[in-house]
Design brief:
alpha/beta, 8-stranded parallel sheet, two-stranded antiparallel ribbon
């Protein structure tokens, strides 16, 4: 297969989920930074996501945050109608176990049984929402943790977390999955309940067969080898999905590849190598988790999708036969150069050809800018009160 054919085949099966919250007003812990074109309603989020999918051809689903997007009493038909209107399906369902005041000391790991029950009830409600909307994945992130030594029983809190996840797992439909995310710190600074991939892996295995680990590319210590974590999870058949973003120091929310595109390429290469060696397709949900305060939100999502496509295409042209032979013969320079050669290859002509072949404009960002959508919604949405229920 030619390199262009390899790229086309890879991109045909590469889909990236967009986050609803990425189109809304967000900010830092000090406050929100408002944009006139930010989405305030679920319909506006679907509309904005539809624009990204229309120009990139790779973003067919929109992740929904339960409290912000599907509050209690929302008829499933309303969400399904928006999906049909704007050409973007409901994607992963994201419960919210960090916003309400009762979660000040944790949710499933809270010392108070009534708080743990409230958190479990919310998770079960989220499973029902996912079932009603035909969503497969429930993406779980917990802010549970503590700030000071001696203030939490670490083993007891782990046991409560495990018990809650097991009860949620029993409510899943046969085709659904629960993806357990980890984060080393923030907002808890002494201990975080699910601080690394090993903890997430153990909790997922303890929850049940439909649980997997979710890797957020921004939630790691500086210099951590994320592709090694990916390789281990693939070997254990426990890699469920990604939240794509980038970061310079800690946390996340920068556009994918803005700081270290070679790292993203290496992650994709590990996945493609696994598929090449095993002859199987890894069942991985690729999702964006970014909240842009300075960049325009829709353009930042288009930029992230284009970057992901480009780096995935580079991974698709890695010569794995040559790479593995060089590894076996311990020819270090040759093995490393196989990766460097693929990363240095300009795959943009192949991407443009792929887009032309699927009726898309060659430059998605230029196509979006030429359409006038941003100017129109900026006028329509300007001056309205900012939406509630979002990060910051």
């Amino acid at each position: 297969m030619t390199p262009d054919a390899c790229v086309a085949a890879a991109l045909d099966n590469f889909h990236i989920e967009l986050p609803s919250w990425g189109f809304a007003d967000t900010g830092t812990r000090f406050g929100k930074f408002l944009q006139a074109a930010a989405a305030r309603t679920l319909e506006e989020k679907f509309a904005d996501a539809g624009q990204v999918h229309a120009v990139t051809g790779c973003c067919p689903t929109l992740a929904l945050h339960v409290l912000w997007d599907v509050p209690a009493g929302t008829p499933p038909a309303v969400v399904q109608g928006l999906a049909q209107r704007y050409g973007v399906r409901p994607g992963s369902i994201n419960p919210n176990l960090f916003q309400d005041q009762i979660y000040k000391h944790g949710s499933l790991a809270n010392e108070r049984a009534e708080v743990r029950q409230a958190a479990l009830d919310h998770l079960l409600d989220s499973v029902r929402i996912a079932t009603d909307l035909g969503a497969r994945d429930l993406s779980l992130w917990f802010a549970d943790g503590s700030n000071y030594p001696g203030t939490a029983n670490l083993r007891a809190r782990r046991a409560w977390m495990q018990a809650g996840l097991q009860q949620m797992h029993r409510a899943l439909a046969p085709t659904q999955r629960m993806l357990i995310e980890y984060k080393p710190f923030e907002p808890a600074f002494y201990h975080t309940e699910i601080a690394d991939w090993g903890m997430a892996l153990l909790l997922a295995r303890g929850a049940g067969a439909q649980a997997r680990v979710l890797v957020d590319t921004g939630h790691h210590y500086a210099g951590q080898n994320i592709e090694q974590i990916v390789a281990w999870l693939l070997s254990e058949n426990m890699l469920g999905g990604f939240h794509f973003n980038d970061r310079r120091y800690a946390d996340d929310d920068l556009t994918l590849g803005s700081i270290d595109p070679y790292q993203v390429f290496r992650i994709f290469t590990e996945i493609r190598c696994y598929e090449w060696e095993t002859g199987s397709v890894a069942d991985i949900a690729y999702m964006v988790d970014q909240s842009h305060n300075l960049k325009g939100k829709i353009e930042a999502m288009i930029q992230t999708a284009m970057t992901a496509q480009e780096l995935f295409a580079k991974a698709a042209i890695v010569d794995f036969a040559t790479l593995l032979q060089a590894q076996r013969e311990q020819r270090l320079v040759d093995a490393e150069n196989v990766l460097k050669d693929a990363f240095s290859t300009d795959v943009r002509p192949a991407l443009r050809a792929w887009r032309r072949g699927r009726g898309l404009q060659e430059d998605p960002l230029a196509a979006f800018r030429a359409g006038g959508y941003l100017e129109r919604i900026t006028l329509e949405r300007a001056g309205r009160a900012p939406s509630g229920g979002s990060y910051a």
